[in-house]
Sequence to fold (82 residues):
Amino acid sequence: MLLRIILVSVFFYLLFRFLRLLFIKPPVNKSPTQKNTSGLVSEMVQDPVCKIYIPKNNSLSIQISGATYYFCSRACMDKFKP
Ligand SMILES: [Zn+2]
Fold:
């Protein structure tokens, strides 16, 4: 009698595991670009004109001969450009 109960419980346990495998899919990554801008603290970059540090996300950037420069404002960017 007791053995029968154990066998039935094991059967239902295995059935449950099997159904979980069928119905539960692995979590899908939701747009990785959004995750980067919202959650994480962004890298700090230095403005070469006024020497302050600003978050990369909030900075203005230009590329000159392969190197990227970051600025706190358009005014600084204009000063830097030749
Ligand atoms: Zn600046």
The chain has a mean pLDDT of 84. The first helix runs from residue 2 to 23. The pocket of zinc ion is lined by residues 47, 49-50, 52, 71-73, 76 (CB under 6 Å).
